[in-house]
Design brief:
Length: 126
């Protein structure tokens, strides 16, 4: 299977932005620990959508507040990313989003467990 340039850049940007956030952002802010799940760069390489999840602790700010704090630092992150990706003529604009895939999969898992539990309670011999 042949990989497109955007596929290679998605992987590269995901790795580099994860390292930059860990090095520069997580230790200095209230954003806390986050994971960069995947990156999707536009075909014209002008922007990169970055999908993240936050590790939430009990007294943490909501994920939406953390996402806003991360968006405020997108200029700094883009500047640091450009230093790492010297081969790119232009570093894409960074747009951060909460990855809802994990949240949705947890909801589906709970629904399935509820269905199984309901089926078992209605027919314990099955």
């Amino acid at each position: 299977m042949e990989f497109k340039r955007t596929d290679r850049l998605n992987t590269l940007i995901q790795r580099e932005i994860s390292n930059i956030i860990q090095r520069e952002i997580e230790s200095d802010s209230n954003i806390g620990i986050l994971t960069v799940n995947y990156v999707k760069i536009s075909k014209d390489l002008s922007y990169a959508d970055i999908y993240v999840n936050f590790l939430s602790l009990k007294d943490d700010a909501s994920d939406e507040i953390k996402l806003e704090m991360l968006k405020e630092k997108s200029g700094l992150l883009r500047s640091l990313l450009s230093k790492e990706l010297k081969d790119l003529r232009k570093t894409p604009l960074l747009r951060f989003h909460i990855d809802t895939g994990i949240i949705n999969s947890r909801k589906i898992d709970e629904i399935i467990k509820g269905i199984k539990k309901n089926n078992f309670s209605n027919n314990p011999n099955a």
